[in-house]
Amino acid sequence: MLSIENLHVSINGAPVLQGINLRIGKGETVILFGPNGSGKTTLLYTIMGIGNYTVTKGSIVYKGTDITDLPPFERARLGIGMSMQRPPSIHGLKTRELVTMCAAEREVDVEKLAEKVNMQNFLDRDINLGFSGGEIKRSEILQLMAQKPELVLFDEPESGVDVENMALVGAMARELLEGSSEPDESHSMITLAKKRVTSGLIITHTGYILDYITADRGHVLYNGTLCCSDNPKRILDHLHRFGYKECIRCLTQ
Ligand SMILES: Nc1ncnc2c1ncn2[C@@H]1O[C@H](COP(=O)(O)OP(=O)(O)OP(=O)(O)O)[C@@H](O)[C@H]1O
């Protein structure tokens, strides 16, 4: 689904990502940990193609197409969607209009989608203008639900979200990534897992999102380099006990 090879990215001439190699298969969800400023958001933005990031080396291939130099709208058309940590407010653009734009040619019932994330009363407000942290997250999820991307990039889905809203954001993130089917007599959990088509790349500091979604793998991004690959809950446990300083040892071994 996504294949990143030897990716080097600079911001205003300063190197931030230095030789990232990452593969995410169809239906796979990958968690990205890393200390502040290590380059996690830079990686997600570079995959989406937004912001002032310059790819100085390497490539990003999505579903067989080299998207390294494609504009963001073409990446979105190919099926990549992103929930930003701090999306911009846009004066004059109503939430309803943006949600409809996200759906592109597909017919969507905007009201019904909005109800799922308690955003009915926000549809006629300018997007993100004056929204609280939790409202911004719900609005981002609403846009993704309308877009139905095949690769979902989540930048810190927990940030600014209270416990109750976390349950909602978590449930909707799970629905986006894993669908809403439950095991029954003819569908086992394994069969359902094999049928998954949506992939995810999720940045988290707290790991709360892991209470809601099933992640296949975790990585730590340290100083612009990916330094480990393991079960995400095990990585989180190690980080809680030893902090990021152990990553230096892994990088130099
Ligand atoms: N527009 C910019 N101009 C200059 N430097 C930038 C710019 N955007 C990001 N950076 C720098 O790039 C580095 C990586 O930033 P990035 O936001 O990717 O880190 P992060 O791992 O997502 O951090 P956090 O966990 O704090 O969100 C940081 O040192 C940051 O200051």
UniProtKB/TrEMBL annotation:
- PROSITE patterns under this entry? ABC_TRANSPORTER_2
- Segments passing through the bilayer: none
Q: Which SMART domains match?
A: AAA
State the Gene Ontology terms under molecular function: ATP binding; ATP hydrolysis activity
Q: Which InterPro entries match?
A: AAA+_ATPase, ABC_transporter-like_ATP-bd, FeS-cluster_ATPase_SufC, P-loop_NTPase
Q: Which UniProt keywords apply?
A: ATP-binding, Nucleotide-binding
Residue stretches making up the ABC transporter domain: 2-248
Member of which family?
Belongs to the ABC transporter superfamily. Ycf16 family.
Sorted alphabetically, which PANTHER family does this protein's record hold? ABC TRANSPORTER I FAMILY MEMBER 6, CHLOROPLASTIC
Name of the featured protein: ABC transporter related
Protein source organism: Prosthecochloris aestuarii (strain DSM 271 / SK 413)
